[in-house]
Amino acid sequence: MFCGALCHAQQSTFEPPTMGWSSWNTFGINISESIIKGQADAMVSQGFASVGYKYINIDDGFFGGRNKETGELLIHPSRFPNGLKVVADYIHSKGLKAGIYSDAGANTCGNYHNGDVLSVDVGLYNYDQHDADFYFKECGFDFIKVDFCGGDPIHNSDRLKLDEKQRYEAIHKAIVNTGRDDVRLNICRWAYPGNWAKDISCSWRTTGDIGPWWSSVKSIVEENLYLSAYCGGGHYNDMDMLEVGKGMSTTEDVTHFGMWCMMSSPLLIGCNMKDINATAKGLLRNKDLIAINQDSLGLQAYVVKKFTFGEENAYILVKDIITLHGKTRAVAFYNPTESVQSMEIDLADLDLAGTVKVYDAVNRRNLSDVTDKLSFNVAKHGVRILRLEAEERLERTLYEAETAYLSCYQEITNHQASETAIYESNANASGGMVAGWLGRRAANDIQWKNVYSVEGGKYKMTLAYVSGENRSLILEVNGKKVKSVSLNSGNWSTFKTYKFDIELNAGENVVRLYNTSGWMPSIDYMSLERVPQTNSIGSVKAKSSKRASTYSIDGRVMPSNKGLVVMDGKKVMVQ
């Protein structure tokens, strides 16, 4: 199924993040037919194929120029003397899938940055359909990574400047025109390109190129911490290829791989699989971490708690796995700082209650059950990744703005010039971040698309915001306008709250804030508190903590039981 067209619409059939190997991180442009075939052999013999890796991706370096008269794409005469099809056929003969590379412009990155003189005019620009037919109909490739050096003037000698959205949409159309509906397109623009990317591709790069050192891994994770709203339905934030087994410490390798799994990034091995060391091989074949990455929900973990240690930060991230809003969740205690840190979180802040079974996904063993909180000392540059199975799932009550979807979010152009919303650091905010530069048009909004209520009903919604001037917003729930308000917190460092009365449906709801003409306040978070229902039997009032409730009927306190209380032998629904 072609991910740019169908996977987004049919969640039950979407593909998980791409798993495989790519030539670039180890070989650069110095690739060959024998190298690619050797790596296909190694993927099988080293046991990678048996745990889910299946793509062998040929990156830059195979080009041999282009015939100016016929438009024929030429293949490097010494690196690939038999052409590309024989290589793709060999990969397929191993039960694997074959990937290829191109550029949205005329020249590739290898031309400008690596001096490959044969990589001129070999990109897709002016040859979209011609090359798509060659790659996917004639050679049979199943994946393509499309770079953008040829479209960005600082990365090509022609100083060619192209429009990202137009170019990638044209490339997507050319792939569709081949008749292939199973090709995976990866957009490699080195920053989150915009929400249009999900309609045409399976994944998009969100950062610059990775390097085999800790500072690179740390910066890439940091850039992806607040992009969870843009992952899902078969479309993924690509944190770049893996550098596991290429010189970092074992702890750093575990954090690197583990966070890629938690954040549902594609997993493309970047080392030489023929001589990989045993420790790195064991990590890359860890079935429990892979299961978190390949989970059927396809979600990226979001930050649920932030710690500040001096000038450094550490984080706890969480996501649903197996069942949406279910009792099984994956959690990461992530410590990128320069010293061991003690990190703790209440189970209620993970929306879990009762006895919780804890499984260490890195070391693949059960830990002691917990009933109140999780606490770990996490090594510097380290991570603890857990699978939690709880007795009870609680409704989420706190929705930080940094977990919300900004409909005009992008990282390519200056947000002020383009008037598009962004996530901004703010030490006074609940989670240390706000969503700002919202409004000026209805489309530049903020949406929480996954607001879940077990039974539906009335809620008190608290909105935290900051604004040094009068700014308006409109609240909309499930497409229906609730209220328009003007807000002013007094200055740009003081946060205030405003309460709304809203009604949610049972299941998932969408809460949206927008302004059709003016700027909106910067948004910190939204919190929800259920409003108890009064019925004919008696006055029912909830005594609510942050996550759990007891109920008082005519002065008698009783525990809740999935929304039911019992009085005089009769079940009474409490909403």
Q: Which CATH class of the largest domain applies here?
A: Alpha Beta
Query: DSSP helix count?
Result: 12
| Radius of gyration of CA atoms, rounded to a whole number | 26 Å
Kindly report the CATH topology of the largest domain. Answer: TIM Barrel
Low-confidence stretches at least 5 residues in length (pLDDT < 50)? 1-12, 538-575
Shape: globular
CATH superfamily of the largest domain: Aldolase class I
Q: Indicate the multimeric state.
A: single chain
Question: Biggest sheet, strands in spatial order?
Answer: 9-8-7-6-5-2-1-10
Q: In percent terms, what proportion of residues is strand?
A: 25-35%
Quote the distance from N terminus to C terminus: 42 Å
- Strands, total number: 34
The largest pleated sheet is described as:
8 strands, parallel
Structural class: alpha+beta
Taking all residues together, what is the mean pLDDT?
92
